[in-house]
Write a structure and sequence with these properties.
Number of helices: 5
Largest sheet: 6 strands, antiparallel
Order of helices and strands: HEEEEHHHEEH
Shape: elongated
Helix content: 40-55%
Radius of gyration: 22 Å
């Protein structure tokens, strides 16, 4: 005779952890978190922790080593998503509550750190761009604060000719999903204590 599986107690599901887990699983596949465009798509840089793509006049420039690193990061983040989902559902199945707590404690804040490191790295990139632009380009790029979201036009005189170059930097909807997933993941630890 087999034992009947007890029904799920939906009141014991860690909703914040389940939401964070599902969003974390899809996050590596929804695209770039931030983009920088110079000119009318003359140079386009799109980036997230899972990819960094540079297009110069439509030609894609890639680094195979970096792509392998990004693949490893994708797999690691997906693993965190699975742990969050498992840790959120195990208490509802009345199984391994200690293991569920361990899963949530391990995975809950990792995505938050990833988002914070990504934003910090972007700020450093933009500050370096501000510093080295005058030695590489015929004009100095003064990127305004808050550094990561702005639209600007650069004017330069080159001999008898003047040019205007539009530059645009912005976060994408994928970054919004990452922030929601990170916040839900961080809250899931507190939510787990209440179960």
């Amino acid at each position: 005779m087999t034992e009947a599986t007890p029904p799920l107690d939906m009141n014991r599901v860690n909703i914040a952890g389940a939401i964070a887990g599902v969003l974390t699983l899809i996050l590596p596949f929804i695209g770039a978190w931030w983009s920088l465009t110079l000119g009318t798509d003359a140079i386009v840089i799109t980036t997230s922790p899972f990819e960094a793509k540079t297009f110069i006049f439509g030609n894609y420039i890639a680094s195979p080593l970096f792509e392998w690193f990004c693949l490893g990061l994708k797999l690691g983040v997906m693993y965190l998503g699975v742990l969050l989902i498992a840790g959120s559902i195990l208490p509802a199945m009345n199984r391994n509550e200690d293991l569920a707590k361990t899963f949530i404690n391990f995975a809950s804040r990792k995505l938050l750190w990833l988002v914070l490191i990504f934003v910090g790295a972007l700020i450093i990139f933009v500050l370096l761009l501000n510093q080295i632009s005058s030695s590489v380009l015929p004009v100095r790029i003064d990127i305004p604060f808050p550094y990561l979201v702005w639209t600007k036009s650069l004017s330069a005189d080159m001999g008898d000719m003047g040019i205007v170059i539009p530059i645009c930097a912005k976060f994408t909807y994928a970054f919004g999903v990452a922030v929601i997933a990170a916040a839900s993941g961080a809250y899931s630890r507190t939510y787990q204590e209440k179960l």
